């Protein structure tokens, strides 16, 4: 019964996701277009670079040309010379990705006119350029101002082509600019034709299409690339084919150009910049090139110089010369390598979305979560591969976002339902083991799927004990149990957070003490380092907490931390009615004893030799304290004090002091108590420390009562 309920719920989710996907696709295409475009960009990048048309040449106003011929704008006689040389070398057609919107202020005629001199005949650079344009196969460029910029609309661009609109709907879908920024009249008049070179980026700033036509004051005007192709083909008419959804295609002779509904042609980029033949404008000006590089070619004049700001963002690069965008458009037009969304794409997308979700739904019925997820990954890759193949090989753009998004959402919610029903099954397992193990361990047992995972066993772990110093005086000062508990909670919370942050397991709270351990139940490779890092951070955090307590007139808290590593017994222990996952053994007892030694030695963190030798990192500030026999142990152990990190210690300990301390400790262990006493007193004079005072008292005691067979080990008879 539960299985059928699960399938029914998953089917309802399937219907909701399918409906939501189709609704989003049909009703909010513009909102999701940004994400769809990014997916298409990824497929472009995966495809890599493609061959380019060798008949397209870019004359580049590059940095070298600017150094040789001066900063832009150049005097028009130089541009005229470039056009003359291109015409002489047999250029098939020339497109100017430049607009000459103002007269040449460097022209002699312009200068004399400014000076009011009328009787001297002077060269007119604008006229020279106009003549060169008239005598060359040049299509001049201009630009549309897309928004109202406060400037009055001027003359309309020249438009020799005849536009014929087929099945035009009442609603206009074409882009309508505000005004045209044209070349000066003499240049505009000399040109046979012109075309705008606007590139309109998508919302994310990436240019993925070029508007082939725009509508200005009720008339249609072609882009620079479209007009160059029209003139090159010798066609006088341009057909614009509509459907009720907008523009479908533009046709020039036998060339049919698929567009989107707004008359934009999607650009099939050939790769990163400089894929086309670039020739420095200076080389054309100086007539230094082989005419065969120009003869019969489609020539574009533009710039790649960063300072001239004709740079665009494309799927391949964030900085891409604008002139190469037009070269890409011309390449697509010449070779018919279009990206398109045909009129039937709507139905294809709906079938694609629905079929993908049906397959994803069937995957939810597979019992194995691993198998189901593996097949889901295969399905996602299959969708990507199919869409990639259609885009790259056929130039057809299916919607990729909604199949991927819909499948992912369906699978997430469907598997959540699976998880819900599995959780109910796990609950029965919990009830079965409720009297044997703790709830926390049951969760881990279920995750691992092994009922024997938490059997009692021996394992090397690192154990940490911490305890509050002078707890009785703190409780007396606070006065009430409520205030004491509040203070303890404020202290315990960050300490526990730090332990878990460093992958520790909080075993228990023993009054004001905390017991934690590392490397059980989960394996922690560098568990001694993690334990010590946790201890250091606890001390540093407590320093900040005490500053807060001082401001709030609360007693400060000081703690001692003991750390030891060793083999202990870990596992589920306790009575039949109540048990817990914990650890016991000599290593645990030694960790507890080490914490108790913090008070007599005046230390905040004490670790044993067994932990120290397992440390991997070397940035800790550690010094040897003593060799001791703790209560209940006969074998001596060396204990060490950690005072933070070498570059962040809470104890100032100079090299000189360290050297004296090392020597004093060696003398003490060698039974040279008089010499050791002098050095420990010297150390105490440098810096009063409880450790130095302890050794002073011991030396004085041993001088008075000379011990026999002294081995340098101090035996503690209390905990």
UniProtKB/TrEMBL annotation:
GO terms for biological process: cAMP biosynthetic process; intracellular signal transduction. Residues 462-595 form the Guanylate cyclase domain. It holds the Pfam family Guanylate_cyc. It is an enzyme of class 4 (lyase). GO terms for molecular function: adenylate cyclase activity. Gene3D superfamilies: Nucleotide cyclase. Keywords: Lyase, Membrane, Transmembrane, Transmembrane helix. The chain crosses the membrane at residues 7-26, 344-366, 373-390, 396-421. Its EC number is 4.6.1.1. This is Adenylate cyclase. It comes from hydrothermal vent metagenome.
């Amino acid at each position: 019964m539960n299985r059928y309920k699960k399938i029914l719920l998953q089917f309802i989710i399937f219907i909701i996701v399918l409906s939501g996907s189709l609704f989003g696709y049909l009703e909010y295409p513009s909102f999701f277009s940004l994400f769809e475009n990014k997916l298409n960009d990824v497929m472009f990048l995966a495809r890599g670079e493609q061959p380019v048309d060798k008949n397209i040449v870019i004359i580049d106003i590059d940095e070298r040309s600017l150094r040789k011929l001066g900063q832009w704008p150049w005097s028009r006689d130089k541009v005229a010379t470039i056009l003359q040389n291109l015409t002489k070398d047999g250029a098939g057609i020339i497109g100017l990705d430049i607009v000459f919107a103002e007269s040449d202020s460097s022209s002699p005629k312009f200068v004399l006119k400014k000076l009011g001199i009328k009787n001297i005949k002077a060269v007119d650079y604008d006229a020279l350029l106009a003549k060169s344009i008239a005598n060359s196969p040049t299509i001049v460029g201009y630009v549309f101002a897309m928004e109202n910029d406060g400037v009055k609309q001027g003359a309309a661009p020249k438009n020799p082509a005849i536009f014929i609109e087929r099945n035009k709907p009442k609603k206009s879908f074409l882009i309508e600019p505000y005004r045209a920024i044209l070349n000066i009249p003499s240049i505009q008049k000399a040109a046979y034709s012109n075309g705008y070179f606007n590139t309109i980026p998508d919302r994310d700033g990436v240019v993925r299409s070029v508007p082939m036509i725009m509508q200005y004051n009720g008339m249609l005007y072609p882009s620079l690339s479209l007009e160059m192709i029209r003139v090159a083909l010798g066609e006088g008419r341009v057909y614009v084919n509509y459907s009720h959804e907008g523009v479908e295609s533009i046709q020039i002779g036998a060339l049919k150009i698929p567009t989107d509904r707004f008359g934009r042609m999607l650009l099939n980029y050939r790769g990163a910049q400089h894929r086309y033949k670039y020739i420095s404008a200076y080389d054309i000006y100086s007539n230094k090139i082989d005419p065969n590089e120009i003869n019969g070619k489609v020539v574009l004049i533009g710039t790649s110089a960063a300072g001239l700001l004709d740079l665009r963002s494309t799927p391949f690069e964030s900085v891409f010369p604008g002139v190469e965008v037009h070269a890409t458009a011309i390449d697509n037009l010449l070779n018919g390598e279009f990206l398109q969304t045909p009129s039937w794409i709507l139905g294809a997308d709906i079938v694609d979305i629905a079929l993908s979700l049906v397959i994803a739904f069937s995957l939810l019925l597979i019992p194995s979560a691993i198998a189901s997820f593996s097949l889901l990954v295969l399905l996602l890759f299959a969708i990507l591969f199919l869409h990639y193949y259609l885009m790259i090989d056929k130039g057809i753009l299916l919607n990729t976002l909604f199949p991927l998004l819909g499948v992912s959402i369906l699978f997430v919610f469907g598997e959540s339902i699976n998880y819900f029903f599995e959780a109910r099954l796990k609950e029965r397992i919990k009830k079965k083991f409720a009297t044997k193990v703790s709830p926390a361990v049951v969760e881990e047992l279920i995750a691992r799927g092994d009922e024997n995972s938490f059997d009692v066993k021996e394992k090397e772990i690192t154990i940490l004990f911490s305890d509050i110093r002078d707890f009785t005086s703190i409780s007396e000062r606070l006065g009430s149990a409520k205030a004491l508990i509040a203070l303890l909670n404020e202290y315990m919370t960050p300490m526990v957070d730090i332990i878990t942050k460093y992958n520790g397991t909080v075993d228990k709270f023993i009054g004001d003490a905390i017991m934690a351990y590392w490397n059980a139940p989960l394996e922690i490779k560098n568990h001694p380092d993690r334990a010590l890092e946790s201890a250091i951070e606890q001390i540093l955090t407590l320093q900040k907490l005490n500053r807060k307590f001082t401001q709030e007139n609360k007693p400060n808290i000081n703690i001692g931390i003991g750390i030891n590593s060793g083999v202990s017994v870990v596992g589920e222990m306790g009575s039949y009615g109540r048990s817990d996952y914990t650890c016991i053994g000599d290593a645990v007892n030694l960790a507890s004893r080490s914490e108790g030694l913090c008070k007599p030695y005046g230390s905040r963190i004490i670790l044993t030799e067994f932990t120290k030798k397992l440390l991997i990192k070397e940035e800790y500030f550690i010094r040897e304290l003593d060799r001791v026999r703790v209560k209940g142990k006969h074998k001596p152990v060396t204990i060490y004090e950690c005072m933070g990190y070498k570059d962040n210690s809470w104890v100032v300990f100079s090299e000189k002091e360290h050297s004296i301390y090392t020597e004093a400790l060696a003398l003490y262990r060698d039974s040279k108590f008089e010499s050791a006493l002098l050095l420990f007193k010297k150390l105490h004079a440098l810096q009063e420390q409880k450790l130095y005072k302890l050794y002073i008292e011991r030396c004085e005691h041993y001088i008075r009562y000379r011990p026999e067979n002294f081995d340098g080990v101090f035996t503690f008879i209390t905990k």
